[in-house]
Amino acid sequence: MAADIDVLKEGIDGLIRAGYYRNREALLEEAFRTMIEVKPSIRLEMAVELYKSEKVSMSRAAEIAGTSIEGFKNFLESKGIRRLVSAPPEERLLKGVDFLLG
What we know:
Elements: H1 2-17, H2 24-38, H3 40-52, H4 58-65, H5 69-78, H6 90-101
């Protein structure tokens, strides 16, 4: 297995030397884009993980997953994943209350 990894690393370096990619990051970016096109379910799982770790909002996660917000909510529910709901800051709530009560 270590030999396979060494061959893969050499192959990557060879593609960069040959000018197919400007650097390792560019190669990995294209490889990743290709992977999520070939396996769309990975996009959905990636979106879920980004959402669960609070790196992205619900709407951004749905966009990444390539689904509607409702579709994303349904997927979370089907997996038993609780949706993250955060309350606005107290100051904002009090301003809203003051506005409503005049």
